[in-house]
Write a structure and sequence with these properties.
Layout (H helix, E strand, L loop, with lengths): L1 H14 L3 H4 L12 H12 L5 E5 L6 H12 L2 H7 L11 H18 L8 H11 L9 E5 L16 E2 L1 H11 L3 H15 L1 E2 L1 H8 L4 H13 L2 H15 L3 H14 L4 H19 L4 H22 L1
Parallel strand pairs: 1-2, 3-4
Protein name: Replication factor C subunit 5
Main location: nucleus
Family: Belongs to the activator 1 small subunits family.
Length: 306
């Protein structure tokens, strides 16, 4: 009677895992995209000549999943814990990490390959690279760049999610090729709303909807300064929008509209200045005033050139 009770917490733990961990690929064949890199690594493994590897690129492009899949293919479950050392470079860095956990791990790996448990320190330094494969090494290594992922695909096998076509496009847009971010947004939206649509995705992330951007542009170009400022401020407060996200969407609009070259240059320069000032912590209300003023001047420039 006690066995099911002991298994229940473990099942609950798995059920409550973030999808990015729960559905992490277990083998190289489970990975999507970067097929040229995966086929090269697979060939190295099959020929038993895997070199040190350096995987680099933007976040969420499969670097951790790739190296873990390699390790799981090289070692059985019972060997995995003793043969694989995973370090987070954000926290585990500095010479003390090299002299401590990394050296201890190398010694333990070498010991497992010797008949005797005794080995002197000089042999350890000479042999540690023979038995240890490093996921980050600059000399005598193969370097692979894993770029942002394109499009979207089924990343959660066995998981049924009610998602619309525009919801999928919104995920792709907001994740910008970062699969980790895409899965986190997908899970959050699914838990909060049940159905994943463009509106629920943008609402869940606090990102302005296309209709919001259309209204903001209409106010800045067709209303007086005071009315535009009041309406945009009310919308930002109501929906919890960040001026930086609004600026990003408006930037795309400026490139799509057929403005005269001088007008487009004026707008892009002003928007770049606003983005920089926001990045150093200036007041959003002042920067919003600057953005509205830039578009009001743009309106006058268009009239003048016409």
């Amino acid at each position: 009677m006690e066995a099911p009770q002991q298994q229940q917490p473990a099942a609950a733990k798995i059920r409550n895992l973030p999808w990015v961990e729960k559905y992490r690929p277990q083998t190289l064949n489970d990975l999507i995209s970067h097929q040229d890199i995966l086929s090269t690594i697979q060939k190295f493994i099959s020929e038993d000549r895997l070199p040190h590897l350096l995987l680099y690129g933007p976040p969420g492009t499969g670097k951790t999943s790739t190296i873990l899949a390699c390790a799981k293919q090289l070692y059985k479950d019972k060997e995995f814990g003793s043969m694989v050392l995973e370090l987070n470079a954000s926290d585990d860095r500095g010479i003390d990490i090299v002299r401590g956990p990394i050296l201890s791990f190398a010694i333990s790996v070498i010991s497992s390959h010797r008949d005797s448990d005794q080995c002197d320190l000089s042999e350890t330094y000479e042999k540690k690279t023979k038995f240890s494969k490093f996921g980050k090494k600059c000399l005598h290594s193969w370097a692979f760049r894993q770029g942002p992922l394109e499009g979207a695909s089924s990343s959660c096998p066995g998981k049924v999610v009610d998602i619309t076509e525009d919801g999928m496009k919104a995920l792709v847009t907001l994740s910008s090729g970062d699969m980790r971010r895409a899965l986190n947004i997908l899970q959050s939206t699914n838990m909060a709303f049940g159905k994943v649509t463009e509106e629920t995705v943008y609402t869940c992330t606090g990102h302005p909807l296309k209709s919001d951007i259309a209204n903001i542009l209409d106010w800045m170009l067709n209303q007086d300064f005071t009315t535009a400022y009041r309406n945009i401020t009310e919308l930002k407060t109501l929906k919890g929008l960040a001026l930086h996200d609004i600026l990003t969407e408006i930037h795309l609009f400026v490139h799509r509209v057929d403005f005269p070259s001088s007008v487009r240059i004026h707008l892009l320069t002003k928007m770049a200045d606003i983005e920089y000032r926001l990045s150093v912590g200036t007041n959003e209300k002042i920067q919003l005033s600057s953005l509205i003023a830039a578009f009001q001047v743009t309106r006058d420039l268009i009239v003048t050139e016409a």
